[in-house]
Amino acid sequence: MSLVSLAGVAKHVTLPDDSRLDILRGVDLEVAAGEHVSIVGRSGSGKSTLLNIMGLLDSPSEGVVAFEGREVGRMRPGTLDRLRGRSVGFIFQQFNLLAGRSALENVAMPLSYARGRAFWSRRRLAAEMLDRVGLLHRLDSPPEQLSGGEQQRVAIARALVRRPALILADEPTGALDVDTGASVMTLLDEIASDSDAALVTITHDVHVAARARRHYRLEDGVLAPVELDTEYRRTALGAVSPA
């Protein structure tokens, strides 16, 4: 059974002049537990909108989204919030860490909304996850004292501390140099594999996309499978530009 599935998903908004802007058009996608799927596309192609719908942060204008076999559109807001908090981990390009708070406090933050043992053990669990990403020696350091690669590893630890079933990475290496980005993706792959989590990487970088088992391209709101050999040639011609 698919962990998350989209069937005929479309997203559109009405502009001030009453015209309609189509962001996504008839997207069909299924992702199972343990899969790594990449979606590549140029800036403005609708990648972040698609990620927000998959991550239960946004609703489609048309179509059906299901999570663990349950139709998301039929869920009550409170049920949806709990499902998202428990089952989805987000990793953003800009890290979105809390300034002035230690790495430990940043990673423990999602567990502030947990119940029972996870809540009472949140600092220990956060420290264990920071140790997993190689930052045990940085527990007390705030973001402003960390390098870009270290900040991204804190963001990964924060996203994974609740052991989500679905990890959504939006341009996870976009703010990093090539070597640091490669090490971050290797770490993310390892952690996702260890926990049998589904990993969906949204990126403009086909080198990052190549790490996935299945590859898609999003163009003008249309999602389609892609062969990376073809995508490399398009990149060489400038068809995919940085976000």
UniProtKB/TrEMBL annotation:
Could you tell me one molecular function GO term of this UniProt entry?
ATP binding
Ranges for domain ABC transporter come to 4-243
Listed name of the protein: ABC transporter ATP-binding protein
Q: Which CDD domains match?
A: ABC_MJ0796_LolCDE_FtsE
Q: Which UniProt keywords apply?
A: ATP-binding, Nucleotide-binding, Transport
Q: Which PANTHER family match?
A: ABC TRANSPORTER ABCH.1, IMPORT ATP-BINDING PROTEIN
State the source organism's domain of life. Bacteria
**Record Gene3D superfamilies:** P-loop containing nucleotide triphosphate hydrolases
